[in-house]
Design brief:
heterodimer; A: 348 residues; alpha+beta; Rossmann fold; OB fold (Dihydrolipoamide Acetyltransferase, E2P); six-stranded mixed β-sheet; 20 strands; B: mainly alpha
Chain lengths: 348, 266
Amino acid sequence: MIEIKNLTVDLGTFQLQDVNLKIEPGEYFIILGPTGSGKTILLESIAGLYPIKSGEIWLNGREVTKLEPEKRGIGFVYQDYALFPHLSVKDNLLFGLKQTKQPKTELHSIVDWIAGLLGVTHLLKRKPETLSGGERQKVALARALCISPQVLLLDEPLSALDPHTREGVQQELREIHRRLETTIIHVTHDFEEAIALGDRIAILSEGRILQIGTPDQVFRQPSSEFVARFAMARNVFSGEVRDVEKGDAIFRIGDLKLAVVTELRGKLHASVRPEDILVSKELFRSSARNSLRGTITHIDDRGSTLYLTVSTPLNFICLLTRRSFEELGLKAGEEVYITFKASAVHIF
Amino acid sequence: MRNMLRWIAARRLPITFLLLGLVILLFISVPLLKMVFSSDPGTLWDTLGEGEVRSAIWLTLYAALLATAVGLLLGVPLAYFLARHRFRGKRFVEALIDVPIVVPHTAAGIALLFVFGQDFLIGKAFHSVGIDFVSAVPGIIIAMMFVSVPFLINSAKNGFEKVDVRLEKVARTLGASPWQAFFRVSLPLAWRSIFAGSVMMWARGISEFGAVLILAYHPMIAPVLVYERFEEYGLDYARPVAVILILVCLVLFIGLRTLAFRGERA
């Protein structure tokens, strides 16, 4: 378990102020915040790499606030991986192990095991400069895992990767976390990444923690403008993809079924942009696979556009132009149909 | 013909610059080459046979090498410190390091004499443990060190600055102490710059004349020997020694430079 009490860190132009976090053993904890909110420094402070002004850091019941970073047993993965360029992948993995006083054969078997776990065994002889972004990220993860860290800190581990690689590494992270049960603190500015991976999410903005909760809590009741804006921009649901019906994958949210396009299976999340949802008074036939009946429960008038909340009873936020809104003559409490394509649903 | 003119017209800037650059390249190479190729191999061989010449060249090489060794021991830590810390007066310290390059070297020699001469405190202290600087090898070494150490410090500092601090930080999280992080990460990564700086420092030490002349005319290093022969016997006597010195320097310098930059990508 890791506990951060009243942490204050001077960042030059502003401060990380009174950060209080309590992260359970084996938890996948996300710190979500915009660029420049002090996320990297917060991680460096936890690892002992950045001097703190005041506060305490406790690791498994032991105070480590003044402990040198090399004695904390905290693994760190930087956004740009920070692999040692003068060492082969194998020597990168061995770097931390060589600091321990274990017999050599032991070290090599640990490296082989971790390399196998992350699927980088074939890269062991290569130099970092010859690796792709995804490979580098896996090697950086493997290097941090080799020392069996009590906590693994990940600084934007996916943001330097292209979308396709990102999905793969994201799966990898989930899998590693499941198998090793390592406590992970992962900072990111990406909402979908946060929802997809986090057991709990802390919202960090301008050096302060604004909210802590499960992805659902954070996005259903956003207590910050930063999250609210995102929550308005996406309809996010958690559910499950188990089966395929007539060629479409089916995303189940309780009793509700949405047709979606994805190769992924299991417990997942879906998002639909408000502007991709059509609102109509009658059900109409179209190529769109998803049509739902609901009631308008709220109208948020923004001038030239309006945001309608339609309860099906699941709440969908839909974006309409003023002209469409007036032509349809919509009012709160009215029954409408909402329609969107299977391909408009993003599964992650 | 027309194509060629067009080809030239499209490349006016690089061609102009190349021609101007050629002038300076010739200015460097022609005197050296002329001196080397206009000397008689027989005379060179005879000169090389002289004990005085051989011992002067040997002394020059190893005194400069020792100066470089001391420079490594004291200069690399400073270079690392400067590369990693920001503090008030850092600019001043950096300027101070460059001062030996800009002061006249005879003046530098006199300045050193005022500290390391036996009448002065530091000179006295060293004298009491049996080390004298005036007219002695240690004097040659400190004179060479004074004028050449900036090259090593600056090059090493640039090398350390290029090492991402995060590599050291990651090393720390992997269990390395600050010392281990330095020796296992920073030093190997900056090594090429440090080596290139050492080569520059050694070469600069070998070529030093003014400061050494003030502190230690004897024992005689090669540049002083060239000067003495020129003064006492004239050009014909001085030239073979000078040619040998140039050849030794060229061979060493080109060899080490190749080594230092081997494998480095453009």
